[in-house]
Amino acid sequence: MAFLIVIVCILLLMVLVTLAKCNVFVAFLIVSALAGWWLGMPLQSITGAMQKGIGDTMGGLLIIIILGAMLGKLVAESGAARQIAQTLIRLFGTRYIQWALLVAGFVIGIPLYYGVGFVLLVPLIFSVVYQYKLPAVYIGLPTLAALSVTHGFLPPHPSPVALVTQFHANMGLTLVYGLIVAVPAIIVAGPLFARYLKKIPASPSPLFQAQENQAQQLPGAFNSFFTALLPVLLLVITTGLLHAAPANSQLYGFLSFAGDASVVMLCCLLIATFSLGIAQRKSLKDIMNIYAESVKDIAMVMLIIAGSGALKEVLANSGVSARIAMAMSSWHIPVLVLGWLMAAVIRASIGSATVAGLTAAGMMAPFIATGQVDPNLMVLSVGAGSLMFSHVNDAGFWMFKEYFNISIKDTFLSWSVMETIVGIMGLLGVLALNALITH
């Protein structure tokens, strides 16, 4: 009966979001309250559980996600993202320009929020398409595949960071594993798959042509790359040093503090404030305005994550999560595959990768508590499932269709298939890593 109630709650969430067009945060609160009532929780404890879930979820995420958004916005506004792309195009040359844009999408995608990165990269893609007379989808899809992978797999993006918190994983180790899984996923879903898309007709809509500020003085190439990649470098370095340091030593304590994702992001933002702000002759007031604008970009994402925390806590307090985990353990499906499958089904139903990942995380949390699976790999497995089969209920589907001005059929054949390949390759990469780690 409890399992049926949870299924009904997830279906209700899907109906509220897709058919009723309800705000996702409000939908999560409604479903959380109803779930608590249906599962027999005392009425007076339901709101307390929801508040605790929101607090516990957001407490570990707020600093990282907001600082990450501020850094990404500054990378975009300062021209560093454009400098990175132009430098890579010069380095790779015309023959490998598709690979240059792919690498640009990956590098730019690490600090930038997905929607910002999408809007920033599309005009660059079309400028290359027009200059070199190349097929737009063939050139552009690998770039957006790289952007999608960073969004689903790699901290400091909101969904991976939230999953790291919910599964009590290690941010740095998840990032290292994520980079390993991301590379083959991008290559297969990008350049290899794009070979079959050369004949898809596409042309940019003038409505979406961004006007570049040619008078803007771009930061230097080293400055741009270094600042954009600094969070990755610091997290990887501190994670490696932490594993090498003697436990309970002063060095271990210092590295634990310095390697904390919140401290890393704060240090990176302070450095970026100087390197991409003050050093580029921006006033401190202008830089702070950029940071204030960045919060608006992620406000809704933060609310979605908060809402998912409320539902997770209600399911945990009612005891149904543990009962579902016990029941699912008899299905003889590997736990990593199960997490991926749950996220994939919710993603196909709702459309939002963030909602899919966080809803699935609430179901899979008991498996982590029993130590049945590496929490870092579970973050990546659920993240990969949350990217599966983007279609008409996903904003990314329509953004790709309208920006590239192609038919719905061709959008399915290109964008939807690309996202599905990313999801499948992500799962295969996670399973391969798990085999290496456990043997």
From TrEMBL:
Name of the protein: Gnt-I system high-affinity gluconate transporter
Annotated signal sequence range: none
Species: Chitinophaga eiseniae
Statement: the UniProt record of this protein carries the keyword Cell membrane: yes
Record's subcellular location: Cell membrane
Record has Transport as a keyword: yes
Membrane topology: Multi-pass membrane protein
TM region(s), chain numbering: 30-50, 57-76, 96-129, 136-154, 174-197, 218-245, 251-278, 290-311, 377-400, 412-437
